[in-house]
Amino acid sequence: MPKKVVSTSPGSIRSPRDDKGNSMVTYQFMSAWLTSRIRSERAASLVEYALLVALIAVVCIAAVTFLGRNASDKFNQVGSSIG
After folding, report:
1. 35 and 60 inside one domain
2. In this structure, how many other beta carbons lie within 10 angstroms of the beta carbon of residue 17?
3. Residues 21 and 46 in one domain
4. Which domain holds residue 5?
5. pTM value?
6. Based on the domain organization, do 36 and 50 belong to the same domain?
7. Gyration radius (Cα) of the chain, Å
8. Cα separations in angstroms, 2 against 5, 16, 73
């Protein structure tokens, strides 16, 4: 059975409706839109990347602190032996 195009008010967007008067296109659009918003993995990916960057920063700070202390000790040792 062909679908009818019905407008509810002048100037409104026309959408196909079934025999019961339900707007199937609007329902399908809203359903797909809500599903995409709820099941979006963009936020999860963003959080994962932020955690990775934070972990890398902590490792870098720890490495620089550790190596800095070792380097300082070596420079002090060499300075003491020279002078």
Report:
1. no
2. 18
3. no
4. 1-40
5. 0.42
6. no
7. 32
8. 10, 10, 86
